[in-house]
């Protein structure tokens, strides 16, 4: 079985220390060297605006300094990934959502119009009409986060509850829409079951397995492209999808080890495409930030399956 040697891990650590953003370096230390949660939160605070939302290229493909829904979701999920659910930074994010920003006609909006005024990847510059299909998955993600973080007496909770109730029939009958479709449903599933919205929990869980399984790209020759690899839906051996996908997970683990450059870290499998020429310097910086983010994700995946010496 292939694994990353200790020397390779030391090389990756040096790259992170010298090249990653302070936020990713703090995350690396927390995840792999028992670094403090407080250090992560302190670096994350630099991206929060007075309205409670997050901006300033927290998500490296959108350099909007203003608060955006995307950056705020990014911050909320980052905090939850390190076990933080109650903190002034999280309260600020919820305050931003309560303000009604990025919310229209009963759904949260994928794009923030002001992002077009800053360097950005093409998807963050889409018009309201172009991004319409993406709104559904993002709305489900936000609702799932709110139902995990807020209490029933909170009006934001009630808004999210309405989304959960409306979305369940679609989940059972239609394929997910957009980039965030599968992730949105995955965040709502435990709440559908907990709140009795899913009358037959076993059927709902089976449906989630069906959707998640169908979303995995199973051809390793395509993994260098922007496609959903197994690790996106199966981050640990405890993942419900793992038993039926052991072989393809092992293939991705080998793939990551085989494609790690002799010097440096893994490269992103996407670009800014037609906006690179508009923002060449910002794109180069963004790509480097993504290298640090991907390094943490890939190392976490390899460690979860026992592939680090």
Brief write-up:
The protein has 11 helices and 2 strands, in the order αααααββαααααα. With 309 residues, the protein is mainly α. The mean pLDDT is 97.
Structural commentary:
Helices cover 52% and strands 1% of the residues. It is mainly alpha-helical. The protein has a two-stranded antiparallel sheet. A hairpin with a 2-residue loop joins strand 1 and strand 2. The longest helix is centred in the last third of the chain and has 25 residues. The termini are close together. The mean pLDDT is 97.
Task: Give keywords.
two-stranded antiparallel sheet; mainly alpha; 309 residues; 52% helix; 1% strand
* Termini Cα gap: 11 Å
Mean pLDDT: 97
Give the class from helix and strand content and strand pairing. mainly alpha
Main sheet makeup: 2 strands, antiparallel
Strand order, sheet with most strands? 1-2
Shape field: globular
Report the portion of residues in β strands: under 5%
Q: Name the quaternary structure.
A: single chain
Poorly predicted ranges: none
| Percent of residues in helices | 40-55%
**Number of helices, where a helix is a run of at least 4 consecutive DSSP H or I residues:** 11
Based on DSSP secondary structure assignment, what is the total number of beta strands? 2
Q: Name the helix and strand elements from N-terminus to C-terminus, one letter apiece.
A: HHHHHEEHHHHHH
The value of Rg in angstroms is 19 Å
